[in-house]
User: What shape does this take?
Amino acid sequence: SQQGEEDPQALSIQEGENATMNCSYKTSINNLQWYRQNSGRGLVHLILIRSNEREKHSGRLRVTLDTSKKSSSLLITASRAADTASYFCATDGGGTASKLTFGTGTRLQVTL
Amino acid sequence: DTEVTQTPKHLVMGMTNKKSLKCEQHMGHRAMYWYKQKAKKPPELMFVYSYEKLSINESVPSRFSPECPNSSLLNLHLHALQPEDSALYLCASSQVAVNYEQYFGPGTRLTVT
Assistant: This one.
């Protein structure tokens, strides 16, 4: 399997704290994407970082990409209870239609 | 409209049944995807359609038969499934180009008895 690895597998923090998730992958990529999934539901796209980018911000999200180490991190600042979900990184290896390979996921629990 | 819809939400079928899952989008996307997701696991790509033609089949058993009748619709026909095929089936769509995100539907929860 070309599946990426994410750590931690699970993360429990209090509201207002920051959450950091890490993703490692194995092959060359066009881009790396992060998605959120609430329990048993569809995935929501959060952010896309291209292979020639090193850092990207979107609201409370900050993503970094290190292609030399084949790794990425997602930082959620000032977390809220509504951020409770599973977070997946997904690498897009190319082709005219994107072909995503998802990481193992991090389950984030934000408590009041 | 950035919504991908999937029907039904839940499906229970026996191993001898034939059923179909449906997916629809009206975003003008010409790439559509089927994923399978087991509990506490990441989604796994099954099929990719590009301009209504099957472009990727990830070695999926023939008891799963995809169909893309037009640019807005994607079906997954199911026949003679096994209990291990029970999972959440997710549909997604995107632009046919590099560096675009995918939009996912809410999924169909399939149980094979």
The two ends of chain B are 36 Å apart (CA to CA). The CA atoms of residues 71 and 85 of chain B lie 27 Å apart. The longest strand of chain B covers residues 18-25. The mean pLDDT of chain B is 95.
